[in-house]
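REVIEWER CHECKLIST
Item 1: Sequence provided? yes
Item 2: Single chain? yes
Item 3: Sequence as submitted:
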Amino acid sequence: MQNFGWIAVFALGSLMVNSLGVYFIYKNNEWAEQLKEYFMCFAAGMLITSPLIMTFPEALSKNDNAGFAAIVGFVFMFFSNKYIKHKTHQKDLAFGITAVEGIGIHSFVDGVIYTVTFSVSVFTGILSSMGLVIHEFAEGVITYSVLLKGGMSAKKAAFFAFLVAGLTTPVGAFLVYPFIHNFSDRFLGLALGFVVGVLIYISAGHLLPEASEYEKKHSNIAFILGIGLAVFIMLIGGD
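Item 4: Structure as written out by the authors:
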């Protein structure tokens, strides 16, 4: 129960930080409209760096076959995007739905990671969770931005960003908690590998091409800043 208390603190804390990001960008909607391409480049840098330097090494340490799971995640998102485009017949709407699908999977697994790490020890959980909580503000901003780009109104984008990027994390943590001791390290390695493939597709196959289509003067700087933030989170977030 002591571990559950820590899990609840960090899972709900991540929800609050994410919601602050959504609220901040919602209250500055005109500014968000002008800068959404920069947010896209920033998101691409962050979402391609985080899995490669943090999640993928962890996945491989748990399961040598995590690379195969990453390919499955990438292909899953590729065909999801094709299917959504076919159903909606709207490029911008399909863009938003696909990006949010990937972020939702990622946020849910973040909640699972809180539960897994605190089940090892409180110390391990705190170290691992610091970086996850810090990145939630940017994730809220990113999710709102892609929904806005997908054609949603400001209010709808804020509401669905809260549901998809914020609420899924505590849901993932609390749903998995009763069953955590039934999960082997090898299974968790495959799950993390799958998330790596999902995020790499969202970044390299989805956000970057879209941002490049409407490239602005300092887009590359925004991309580098996204990479820099991911590295910074890794350095201060612990092991």
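Item 5: Key structural point noted by reviewer: The first helix runs from residue 2 to 27.
Item 6: Recommendation: ____
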